[in-house]
Amino acid sequence: MKKRLQKILLCLFVLTVAYLVTYYPGDKNAIAAMRSDETVAISRTDYGWYFDGPSEDDVLIFYAGANIEETAYAPLLHNLAEHGMDACLLKLPFRVALFATDKADEVIRQYHYKNCYVGGHSLGGLTAGLFAHKTSLDIKGVILLASYLYKPVRETMHVISIYGTEDKVLNIKKVKEMRNHISGAYDEVIIEGGNHTQFGNYRKQILDGDPKITWQEQQQRTVETILKCTKE
Known about the structure:
By secondary structure, the chain is an alpha/beta fold. The chain has a single domain (2-231), classed as Rossmann fold, CATH 3.40.50. It is 34% helix and 19% strand. The chain has an 8-stranded mixed sheet with strand order 1-2-4-3-5-6-7-8, with helices on both faces. The longest helix has 20 residues, at 2-21. The termini are far apart. The model has no long low-confidence stretch (mean pLDDT 93).
């Protein structure tokens, strides 16, 4: 019995290490988007990376999806910062957001934005929702990319849910269940032809559907949706 238990624990350890070591790195477009330009200044910080665009009022604190290199989201966040919402991309331990649920707290206290949103992709969005659920800080809303709320948030928070029609990774049942537990403002936007992967720039995730639009189109629609919903 003891030897069997040891084998099970060893197997679990090997699987865990394999999961944490094998990840989705950002592609060449992600690397290019990590460079500052005349509109967006990108700086390395103690919490991760700061995308500083023209906005003085709005910011998104972003949790990456599980096992995905954080900088894979640089093209999306660079675009967002360029068009009106600064972004703080969190560096996560072992690239797993749940290991750093409260990390947004130190970022919020560091800056003085009028409208602060937390959000993320996939497990990162779920983690952002968990932070929003328990924080006492003034959060304007939660932005979920191919994700859902695991626990309810205050009715004063605006929940924005964005996902693609070709997403085969997202648990749609959980998204539908979430709708019944949101007491405040809620926007749900489904991107025609978008999938799970293309919110970031990395190789296609296992089990995900084939996109019918380019990553540029999916991310542009995402940015437009975020800006429209947060300005209403």
